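Below is how a single chain appears once it has passed through the pipeline. First comes the sequence as given, then the structure the pipeline wrote out for it. We keep one example in the README because the format questions we get most often are answered faster by looking than by reading.
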Amino acid sequence: RSCSTGSYLFVFSIDLPGRTAEALPDSAMAAYAADGSEVADRKDEARSGPSVDDGPADVSRVCVKSWLDRYCEFIAVHPLKVFAITLAVTLLLCSMPFVLFGSKAATLDMGLDAFSVRGNLIADRQVSFYAALCQTIDCEGRQEGNEEGNETGNATVNATGNAAAPVGDIVVAFVSKDAGSVLTEDRLPQVLELEQAAAAALGSPKATVLSKLFPNYPSASNLPSGLALVEKLQILAEEVLDTQNADKLESVHFDANFSACQPESVLVTSTFPASDDTSMLPQLQVLETADLYLTFWIRNAKPGTPLERWFRDERTAQIASDTLLVIGVVTAALIILGVMTRSVMLALMGMLAILLAAGVAFFVYRMFVSEWFGVLNAFAFFLLIGIGCDDVFVFADAWRQATELHNIPAEDHAGRLRYLFPRAGKAVMTTSLTTAMAFFGNIVSVIPPVRLFGIFSGIMVLIDFFLTLLFLPAVLVLQQRWFGNSHSNTCSVLKGPLPGHLRKTEMILVTKIIPPILRISPAIVLVCALLAAMSVNVAMQLPPSTDFHQSDLFPAHHNQRRANAVQGLMKDTSGEFVELDIIYGVVAGDSGDLNNPASKSGVDWDSGFDIYDPAVQTFTLDFCSALLANRGLVRGISACWAQHLRDELLSMNASFPSSSRADIDAAIRPWHGLFATPEGGHWARIMVTSTAPFSSAVSGLRVHHDRFEELLEHWNDEARSRGVDAASRAFHTCWQWSYMSTIEVLATSTVVACCISTAFVAIMLSVTMRNIVVVLLVLLHVVCICTVFVACMVLNGRKLGVLESLSTSLLVGLSVDYLAHVASAYLEESAEKGRGQKTLAAVAHLGGSVIAGASTTITSALFLCLGTITFFTELGWSIVGIILLSLFATMLSFVSCLYLFGPEGTFGALLCPPRCSSSSIVVAEERLDRGVGEPANAVLGKVELPVISKKIRWATGAAACILLVAGTVVCLALQLQEGSTIQDEAACPDLRELEFTFEDYLIAQNQDSYRCRGFELIPPTCTYYVTEVEPIVTPGLAGIVHHMILFATEMPSSTCPFTCWDMPDARGQDAAWAVGGGTLQWPEGFGYAIGGSHHALQMHYYNPSLDDNLVDKRSGLRLKMSRTPPQWQHILTNIIVGLHPLGYLEIPGGLMSRTYVAECSPVLLGNVTVLAHAPHAHSLGISISTEVYRRPFAGAFSSAYVGDVGESPIYDFNYQTVHMFPAGSERHLMPGDTIRVLCSYRSISRNHTTFSGWGSEDEMCMTFLYVYPSAHVGSANCLAASASPL
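Resulting structure:
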């Protein structure tokens, strides 16, 4: 027999001593004769005795009734017993989780908190850190990996190690509906109206900007208009952007583009005090005016407070209300089941089987997988309804077709079941196994909710398949017994066709729809191939998501969704940089249940970490100094336990490093970053503020993460090389790294899951269909459906976030279903038929089931779309898109491919085992007669199929392959070319001269004003070599333009001039000029390397006469440069030496003079020459000296003074410039040199202590050294963590 039929009967091979085959009773063979003459031939063969191939005559092989045959007879005789037993067992299993676990049967989580990576190294580090934190300090309410921070009200842990005290504020934003500015004459009164409405519910605002705009606030009278309003807004913008006012204006927000140059904002906020009374919050959500809407969120609210619970409960209530949609889904599915099966009983019992399958699946899931049950698991039930209804349709059609198309008597229940199981059972098995395996492909995901969704969905599909085999046959027999023939069913809504006739749906398909499709099948195949090839390029452009948030659960008009969007528009006034922790004494690992996102990990303490070891103390101190020196990565350190321990010990007149346990225990403070473990040891954290912007994209976070990883690996290796093994296992962590990994994993795990799902599907199709040609056609269509769907997401502006990742992971499982149905039906047809007849018969047999199943799934998805939870609605639309694509691909492209290229005879059939063997249990194949009833056969026979020549078929196949392969290659090449073009456009232009200037700027009516402006003139990947720095000063402003400093920054600065008493985010000084200075020209053949950073120009205007009409037409710095580098020996760079801006410096008030020293050793790879220097301090600085100390010989214990690399005995903050050493008097530095920067300060004008910092009211102590060759400079930073008084 041909293996391509794919029908199986399990038979037994037994020895019958003393009996021959002809002695076998006729009744033993008669059971097989219900469906055709082939069994009769078998019986005749048995009666004629064994053939020559059967072996010795005394050992006979016979095939007796299969288990399936016995099962069919048992159901036919005892359908009610089978129904009752199956129902009782499934109900028992459904109740077991609640009986065994009670209220702990499931941990429901309907939020998105759990959508974070878990199980990889980055996640393990974060989980370990928070587990250690929560075991050693009170951090109740701290959420692991919570990206919302204070804005969502989650308690944070401050430097003291204690939970930060919650302030509890409600921030109310007034936002334009049309993205226009709210700071206009007609809209500001509306803002005030909304604020007063909010104040009626919340009380008076704590902070509001409206008091600065309305003269009679809170009255709206006398609001300035025209230029007067613009001037007020410009003054307000100056205050907001003034770096000294950042803390004062922390509660006032505008959008990120608000500036004095553009005093416009689509939003403005006011801050109100929070309270435990939440009854007024619902009324705030509906407040709006004609042009504005109001949105609000909480800040610094402690978890568990009524205010925080209200926001959380709102999400839960919204989800709970949307789950009621399942009633509509079940009702709609019941209606469709009733209409398509024409049986109310079958519709009700089919839906009961689906519901029971969900219950049994939950039992299996709870017992063997996890107790956690999330929003995705609930969503899986909607998928099951569509899949389960599809199985019901296939069984009902096969049961009906046994009588209507194959003339099996309606009362012959066993005969109809023997027809049903090989046909419908195989089709359902094929689709169920492939769909389940596709869902199981999500097991590879390291995002627990996605992984658990895949497991739960796969289990539900498999349970539904087994319940279908057990439950529905008994229901079909009971329906026949109780209500009679299907065409006169007294429990039917509609009358079915007479026996031997096609249903109306099938009739329309085979007579009206399929023939026109087959006539143009070559064109359909070519168009679909072209579409798939074009989709490849588009699909590959799917960008990763930048964020996902709890508010994604809500529709766009909901308050929480609006609040999150508004916060993304605001200008950030605090927390601008990523803060991370470097951990010692904890072994990274996650001992929690990875299949339970709510599971907490224990802590594996590193017993080898010993804070009492002096070598550990010294090494950590060196490491902290190195961190501060790395200004490309580190902005500051808020807690370094070794530094604090040193300071505490020295203040106690104890030595450092120390091995005295008594002294160290007395000096330990929790806020220093040292914590005792339950086992009697210690663990430590170094709290670092990085240079990574808080709002960095994933790619930017990855760059910073990898650089920190490289830095930690270097210092861990350094610890091992020094023999300090206890300090060689440090790791770094922060929630941003986990967030970054989550977004990255969404992309990679989606691709991997799709690939694994496709591989599973290929294996299952090969096993069940056993025809390589059909399997390849199915897989090709699955891949094309996935590609086209992803391309549609890209064209729709979607990004690869949680929703898109989930939708993509569903692609394989949902797209293969209908393809497998039609492919299975095609292979079920007789091998003697041609591909055209087989294609038409396959559509006639299962086309109606495919359409009915698609209708049910789409209906279920549409009910999801009616919900208010965006998570459900967007998934619903995604499923609708997937099902429609799959349906069209099946009925158009796949049917056309079968008609043109479908296998005939045994072509493409895979080998299968022999039908019978001498083993006790063997598999034999019994092909049932597939003859169609006369009327139906006449209908199919009357369908005129187009004749397509072999040449056209071959040409179509070749063209389709060329389009798929060549088209894909061309699209990929175009994408690569586009990327190359972008790179070419970003290539470094041949710049010879750049000007960094202020133009037409009205100088403030102040004696001293410091203004900064950002520039993006140099591509960040380019390097140029400055040969000359020329000042540009507007005529008449000599002396007023006091000094100019061009400095590099990590982040872009505003291009609109803003007040900057300090140099915010400074990374290095690239050029400078001050009053009295002239053009700075580097020696011939030298060049200062510039580039790789953003730039800002600080301008100091000195206006002692307080003139109010001074306009700076054009002042700044002109840099002459070359793209061509000089000889490597003559490339200049700068080294910053001295005290880190955020290091420790404490200057008491009232001092006439005090000198502090900061000491460091620059990282040099060879000797360098110091060509110039630029000292820098703030307004208290009076002198700066930079000295060099060198060991007189290798191994010397101490260093000796060898000279200076810059001397400024009279330093004036208002006269800063670059001082070049005269030719022949340049200074020299050697590897191993130590530099001491001595800064003297006069604080007699102040009565308070001054500390180090960025602001001009703070102080600095550093010198910029311009040295060459740059190749000998290992680090551009040599900054100490503290400065000590002499």
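The mean pLDDT is 79.

See the next section for the split statistics.
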